[in-house]
Specification:
This protein is an alpha/beta fold and 186 residues long. It has one domain (2-184): HUPs (Rossmann fold, 3-Layer(aba) Sandwich), CATH 3.40.50. It contains ten helices and six strands, in the order βαβαβααβααβαααβα. β2 (32-37), α2 (51-61) and β3 form a beta-alpha-beta unit. It is globular and about 45 Å long.
């Protein structure tokens, strides 16, 4: 089984998230994409909406039986993606996992705890998002430039391996949605 792990705060979930998940599902011929709704992103100061609200928002956008929304990190009691990946790999040794992210996440990936280990644990699929030029020159992209492979080879590649999945850009943003909501409340 080929499973994409798509982690995030989803605060709130939006069409850009659905676009990233659907692009990875189709382009990598995945069996499933699991939306891992994080209880609290350690890199974000803003208090997220309650986990139940963010789960509901992700569920509304995760279309089809191949999209699964999960609070696995809350259930497992983990905070960091690296720990989540390692636990899931240990519990499901026959599954081929790939980490799925938007290009905006790759731009800041070097700030994640254990980011170089994540590259060594699972292949990584990066879906084009606005600001792609920033992502392709990021410390993570530069550090693992020699590990970049064609998307068709990603699922069989031994980590470290990552691919860039070109796609039409979707400009939806959680930050922009939160800003609009706060302005309408004033």
């Amino acid at each position: 089984m080929r499973v994409g792990l798509f982690g995030g705060s989803f605060n709130p979930a939006h069409e850009g998230h659905a676009h990233v998940a659907e692009t990875a599902l189709m382009r990598l011929h995945l069996d499933r994409v699991i939306w891992l709704v994080s209880p609290q992103n350690p890199l974000k100061d803003a208090s997220p909406k309650p986990l139940s609200e963010r789960m509901a928002g992700a569920n509304a956008l995760a279309r089809g039986p191949s999209m699964i929304v999960s609070d696995a990190e809350a259930q497992l009691g983990v905070t960091y993606s690296l720990d989540t990946i390692r636990l899931l790999k240990a519990r499901h040794p026959g599954v081929r996992f790939v980490w799925v992210m938007g290009a905006d996440s790759l731009a800041a990936f070097h700030r994640w705890k254990g980011w170089t280990e994540i590259f060594r644990e699972v292949p990584i699929a990066v879906v084009a998002r606005p600001g792609a030029e920033r992502a392709l020159t990021s410390p993570a992209a530069q550090r693992f430039a020699s590990a970049r492979v064609d998307p068709g080879a990603l699922m069989s590649a031994k980590p470290p391996a990552w691919s860039w999945l070109s796609a039409p850009l979707n400009y939806a943003s959680s930050t922009a949605l939160r800003e609009r909501l706060s302005q309408t409340r004033r």
